[in-house]
Specification:
This is Sulfotransferase. Keywords: Membrane, Transmembrane, Transmembrane helix. It contains ten helices and seven strands. The protein is an alpha/beta fold and 289 residues long. It has one domain: Rossmann fold. Strands 1, 2, 3, 4, 5, 6 and 7 form a seven-stranded mixed β-sheet that branches. The chain is globular, with a radius of gyration of 29 Å. The structure holds 2-acetamido-2-deoxy-beta-D-glucopyranose (5 copies). One 2-acetamido-2-deoxy-beta-D-glucopyranose binds next to α9.
């Protein structure tokens, strides 16, 4: 027994002391690394907390208002049979029409999304009709415009024929959507209009796109013309030469303001029939988004 202990302690005497101190050192380093890691994580979380609030919300989910919220939404039919004043729907008079509006922000892919919708022969998305100030100066002007769109009396290059099965337009958050939200929600629910919220997850890229677009507006890189949306590879390559200068002092507050705007819009319109779509989820090519 004594010999056994001796043999053991012999090893222990020789090996243990250095092992003990290195273990201690390791523990200290580990503890330090853990504490520091947690500290960094808290800082990061603080900085991106409002960002994650928006991104976690509704990812490609069709978000119907809850049953307890507002029963009126469910009593309004989704299908409509409008009677346009400017033409007769003729043989399609019994074809139902769906009403929609794409609610978005500039440089978020809504132009591309709208082109996609309009490629369907019976879908008509009439563009950014509220870019004209007179159409959104007050709520009665907005209603007049909306009534014409949903009565199929609005004419644009995207207008379809008497057999249109869905009609809508795109509406930017800075075009009266936020100012008149209460009346607009009431109108949309009364008339059975569905909303498609289209936003970008990567708000920094959106900011760069805004900068590039405004730079191109006065520099006119494309042979002296300004195009909000490029249509060829050459045009895209020319515009991609642009190197934005981001004001780092204002960066975080600018991004935060954009996030808050989106979150607020979703809250204001939470009782409408709507879905939330993110551009990055629609576009598979990561270089594009
Ligand atoms: C909509 O948002 C308001 C304000 O935050 C909230 O009180 C209400 O419960 C929300 N309604 C639904 C249906 O989520
Ligand atoms: C468009 O509407 C017409 C008339 O209802 C219908 O015959 C046709 O199949 C529709 N086209 C598509 C692609 O759904
Ligand atoms: C609303 O705006 C339209 C267009 O700017 C104007 O003609 C009309 O008088 C305004 N109505 C009210 C009630 O302010
Ligand atoms: C600009 O114009 C030239 C000559 O017409 C043409 O070759 C070139 O492709 C144009 N560039 C762009 C970016 O449109
Ligand atoms: C960034 O914006 C702030 C506030 O507007 C301004 O004072 C500052 O000069 C800007 N910085 C640059 C590099 O433009």
């Amino acid at each position: 027994m004594a010999e056994y202990i001796y043999l053991l302690s012999k090893d222990a005497v020789i090996i243990k002391p250095p092992k003990k101190s290195s273990m201690l050192l390791r523990m200290v380093v580990l503890m330090f690394a853990m504490t520091f890691g947690v500290y960094i994580c808290t800082i990061c979380r603080q900085q991106i907390s409002s960002l994650s609030k928006v991104t976690i919300k509704n990812i490609q989910v069709i978000d119907e208002p809850s049953n307890t919220a507002d029963h009126s939404v469910f009593h309004v039919p989704k299908l409509h049979y409008p009677n346009p004043e400017s033409f007769s729907r003729e043989e399609c008079v019994d074809n139902p029409v769906r009403y929609f509006a794409i609610v978005s922000t500039q440089r978020s892919g809504s132009g591309w999304f709208e082109t996609l919708l309009n490629s369907h022969v019976n879908v008509s998305s009439n563009g950014e009709i509220f870019s004209v100030l007179d159409r959104r100066r007050n709520f009665s002007a907005i209603v007049e415009t909306l009534d014409r769109v949903y009565n199929l009396d609005w004419f644009s290059s995207a207008s379809k024929n008497e057999c249109s099965a869905a009609v809508g337009f795109k509406w930017m958050l800075n075009q009266g959507v936020m100012e008149h939200h209460e009346e607009i929600v009431e109108y949309l629910n009364r008339r059975g209009v569905s909303l498609i919220f289209l936003f970008r997850r990567n708000l920094l890229r959106r900011m760069v796109s805004l900068l590039a677009n405004s730079y191109d507006k006065y520099a006119k890189l494309l042979n002296g013309t300004h195009k909000s949306h490029v249509h060829t590879t050459e045009e895209a390559e020319t515009l991609s030469q642009f190197k934005p200068i981001v004001n780092s002092t204002l960066l975080i507050s600018d991004l935060r303001r954009a996030e808050i705007l989106v979150a607020k819009a979703l809250e204001y319109y939470n009782t409408t029939r709507h879905m939330v779509v993110y551009y990055e989820d629609l576009v598979k090519d990561s270089k594009v988004s």
